[in-house]
Amino acid sequence: MSSLDKLKEAADKAAERAAQAKKRLLLAQQREKKKLSSEERKRDARKKVLLGAWVMSSMTQEEIQEHMNVYLTRDSDRELFGLAPKLADASNSPEAEQQQQQHGVVTSQS
Predict the structure, then answer these.
(1) CA-wise closest residue to 85 among 93, 76, 94
(2) What is the rounded distance in angstroms from the CA atom of residue 107 to the CA atom of residue 97?
(3) Is 0.70 topped by the overall pTM?
(4) Do residues 98 and 89 lie in contact, with contact meaning Cβ atoms separated by under 8 Å?
(5) Which run of H or E residues covers position 82?
(6) What is the DSSP letter of 90?
(7) In this structure, what is the dihedral angle of CA atoms 92, 106, 42, 57, given to the nearest 10 degrees?
(8) How far is Cα 1 from Cα 4, in angstroms, rounded to an integer?
(9) Which residues lie below 8 Å from residue 84, measured CB to CB, with a gap of 6+?
(10) Most-buried pick from 51, 54, 72, 79 (CB within 10 A)?
């Protein structure tokens, strides 16, 4: 094997090691990003729990239900608060829109 062949072989091995190192670095970066994203979701969930606890301690059950009756649109969410299912056509009524505006609910209707 000539010295040129040896140099080429060494260069190929170095390039392979560099590619593997780059792959390890990318994987480590992905793990770190996933970890930070997971931590952020946990912090966000904790904020929501604490905010909910504060609201529940600051308002009467009737006040909470009144606000949630306007805010909640999914039947499964409404059920959690003991609210009747929301009729699709009733949510478009002028009374419903007025209540939503009073409670600061933003709708996607134009």
Answers:
(1) 76
(2) 9
(3) no
(4) no
(5) none
(6) G
(7) -90
(8) 8
(9) 78
(10) 72
CB 95 within 8 A of CB 81: no
Are 105 and 70 within 8 A, CB to CB?
A: yes
Amino acid at position 5, single letter: D
Give the C-alpha distances (Å, rounded to integers) separating 86 from 70, 72, 75, 91: 10, 9, 7, 7
User: In terms of C-beta density within 10 A (0-12 exposed, 13-18 middle, 19 or more buried), how is residue 105 classed?
Assistant: middle
Name the residue ranges covered by the structural domains of the chain: 1-58, 60-110
pLDDT tens readout for residues 48-84: 999 999 999 999 999 999 999 999 999 999 999 899 9
What length is written for the chain?
110
| DSSP code of residue 89 | T
Q: What is the mean pLDDT of the chain?
A: 86
